[in-house]
Every structure is written in structure tokens, then in C-alpha cells.
């Protein structure tokens, strides 16, 4: 209950404070490339319930045909998209999903169904017992995931065989120990990681 209050309070404050920035980013994306400013994609949420995540669009509008993973210096990424992705600004609209109760500020990152189907059933049940989050420990440690995947001849399989097990270990640790104090530490660690980059 306290965690949900924390999520509502800070997502609402974040949306209010960041609204001028959102407007500027909206205009930049629209100027930079044709298409909508927001990207919506179906992800798997708490208890397996699907929802459409909010993100600022960082790729061309035909990007889905090139696969769901972003690998290396992906040529589908727009000029504005490179900046938004580097500083994780593209994730900020997920504050809307937090306010709506589909996500939390901190929690396991929501997967598309394609990769959620690769989870062991027991692991999947545990991970989906909490709301997915905008950030978590895995997001901090795997911040350069797309560069890592670029080293493999089959990035999709590498994501399943190499990246997912690492993420799942962090997710399970969070599910076991989550709470407001843990969330605050992860939020500050995320901000520090972005600043250092």
C-alpha cells in the first residue's frame, strides 16, 4: 500500500514538473521525423495482464519490421532518438503507466510476450507477482545491453540465452526484497548512472 502511494505521488509530481520538457520533446520528435511522438507497444504486466506501454518514439515508424531488439548503432533510430535513449528520457512517459497502476517506478522491466514466453513458468509467476517498473537493478547494470548484443551473430538468441538469465536473477532478487527503501536506492542509483554516462 505504501509503495503504491509512493508511486502515485511521485508519478503525478513528475508529470506536472516535467510537462514543459514533455512538450519540447514532443515538438522535437515531430520535427525530426514523420510519425507520432509517442510509441505504444503491448507488454506483459502484473499477473500476466497485457497493457500498452508509453514511450517517446525514438525510431522510424516502420521499425517493428526490423525486429523487437535494438542492437548496436541501430540505423532505425532517429537523430532525436539517439539522445533520448542515451539519457533514458524516452522512458519518462511511463510515468503515465505508473499513475494508471499498470507499472511502478521501480520493478522488473516489462517484456513483450515473445520473450516472456521464454521464462521458466515458476520464474515467470514470481516476476509477474509485482508491477513492472520504469527502472530496476537490471536496467542499471545492463544499461549498454544493445552494444553487448551487437557482439553476437544472433542477437535475439543471445538475448534469450545470455541477457535474460541475468535480468531474471535481478528480478527475482527484487521480488524477494522489494519495498519503498529499496525503490528509493534504485531510483538514486539510476539517476547517478545516467549522470555518469
Could you explain the architecture of this structure?
The chain has helices spanning 2-32, 79-86, 94-99, 113-116, 121-127, 137-141, 145-149, 155-177, 180-196, and strands spanning 38-44, 50-56, 104-106, 133-135. It has 197 residues and is mainly alpha-helical. It has one domain. Strands 1-2 form a two-stranded antiparallel sheet. A hairpin with a 5-residue loop joins strand 1 and strand 2 (50-56). It starts with a helix and ends with a helix. The model has no long low-confidence stretch (mean pLDDT 93).
CA radius of gyration: 16 Å
> Can you count the helices?
9
Poorly predicted spans: none
Total DSSP E strands: 4
The arrangement of helices and strands along the chain is HEEHHEHHEHHHH
Query: Which geometry do the CA atoms define?
Result: globular
Strand proportion, as a percent range, falls in 5-15%
Question: Keywords, please?
Answer:
197 residues, two-stranded antiparallel sheet, mainly alpha, two-stranded parallel ribbon
What is this entry, summarized?
The protein has nine helices and four strands; from the N terminus they run αββααβααβαααα. It has 197 residues and is mainly α.
Describe the secondary-structure layout:
Elements: H1 2-32, E1 38-44, E2 50-56, H2 79-86, H3 94-99, E3 104-106, H4 113-116, H5 121-127, E4 133-135, H6 137-141, H7 145-149, H8 155-177, H9 180-196
Parallel strand pairs: 3-4
Antiparallel strand pairs: 1-2
